[in-house]
Amino acid sequence: MKGYFGIGVEGVSKAVNVGTLFRTAHAFGASFVFTLRAQYNRREGAHTDTSDTPRSVPTYNFADLESFRLPQGCRLVGIEITDQAIELPSFRHPRQAAYILGAEREGLSADVQSICDYVVKIPTRFSVNLGVAGALIMYDRQLSLGRHAPRPVAEGGPTEAVVVPPFGEPIYKRKQRIRARAAQAGR
């Protein structure tokens, strides 16, 4: 899958929720994780982040909105239940994205929503746990941007293999040079 993504939280109060989100992000291959206006206690978060994400994935802690930074070209996608938000099944994920979820009770603040390129909502009857919401977002990203065999019409697993790109298998220049040298040496 081309591109990258990061995921983070704004102002959360429960370190175990952040730990769950970070562990799931690590499992889905996040390029970075972050907190904004949050007092994340890594020791408490380790109860649920058993992969110790901060030791394996770049982790940023932004004290306030003024210090908040993303890589150049990265789109900020807020996750929040609002009337104006795009429903997740209808959303096309940016190739370079950072997803941000709000605090458990307050949600994503209005000033953070205002700097988001997109605000997306998960179509559920009511709000779900922070870690669950993050997992759903990352899973949807993988489904929509990853290369997978097509779903069958009937129930069960795929009946077709993953389609190989029309331009063929990747060409590795180093292997070509080694083969060329071997061919020249054999003459």
TrEMBL record:
Pfam families: SpoU_methylase. Residues 8-139 form the tRNA/rRNA methyltransferase SpoU type domain. One of its GO terms (biological process) is methylation. Keywords: Methyltransferase, Transferase. It comes from Reyranella soli. The keyword Transferase applies. This is rRNA methyltransferase. The keyword Lyase does not apply. Gene3D superfamilies: 3.40.1280.10. It comes from the Bacteria. One of its GO terms (molecular function) is RNA methyltransferase activity.
